[in-house]
Model the fold of this input.
Amino acid sequence: MPSSRMPKSMAEKKEVVQWIEKNGGVPTPAAVYFKNERGWKVSEAQVRYWWKQRTAIKTAPALRSRLSGAGAKPRLSEIEDILFDQVLFRRSAKEKVSRDWIRDAGQRLAASELGDTDFVASDRWVNGFMRRYGLSLRRTTNLTVLTDDVLTDRA
Done:
């Protein structure tokens, strides 16, 4: 069964905040009004939350659906910064950086910096780390086995 939750745009949230300001500054009647008059499925708790966040909602663009700062925060941001520096250093030294190396280095850093020996550094974490820092792995080619003369003839 699909969820009955319907996301509200920032324009609709602004409309709710304006209605509350116009009608006495109490958020709970706004939920009843928008349920009955507009047919929205919105809880009183959600309307109270919008009222609490009213300054951010007023300044946000109307087409955005979420406030900035929403979402999960990376838990290992300090370790990821150190790991990213290590990746850049290895690349500048012309050393190979692989997904396995990133995983192992992440586990070593978590153990040494945080004392977290249970950190797994899963494929999902490696994917997320590489996406957050804009990293990609080099593709392997067979052109390195060719001599310079053959490569210049191909060009």
About this structure: Residues 80 and 129 are 7 Å apart (CA to CA). Helices lie at 10-22, 28-38, 44-52, 54-59, 77-92, 99-114, 123-132, 148-154. Residues 77-92 form the longest helix (16 residues). The chain has two domains: 10-59, 77-143.
